[in-house]
Amino acid sequence: MTTDKSKTLLLHAAGIVGRGFLLGLGFSFALGIAATIGWKVSSHRVAEQTETMQAEVGEKDIALTRVEELKHDGTTTIIGTATNHGKKAAHGIHVQANLFNHDKFVDQYSTYLSGAIEPGKSQYFKISCGCKDSPPAEHDSYKLEVLGGY
Asked: What is the model's pTM?
């Protein structure tokens, strides 16, 4: 009789553990679905906000002035000033230099400006083209452009 009672107790305990396992599995599944939906919704909102912020600063809002190409000791840098003519602060401005040799594109370098440029304010920029051991392609002209910001 003790064997029957032991088996009954063991089966009862296994039933409780099994129900607990299934209950936990169900909660985990529901939590996983809720987390996935929440992540997708928040990712969509972040993407919408990023598009809105990037649309706020147009390339025409940032003017590049006092631009010079400096060659010294085997290195080439392009320096200048970026001025915000827009109505909002500009962040993450991306400035790109395209190098040309006889009107043929030969190389490209860029930089990002750190911090914010408030409306009506300016910030210096510097684009390093190559390095002493690896100079940029031979070129006779360059064109700068502002690729974006937010």
From this structure: 0.59
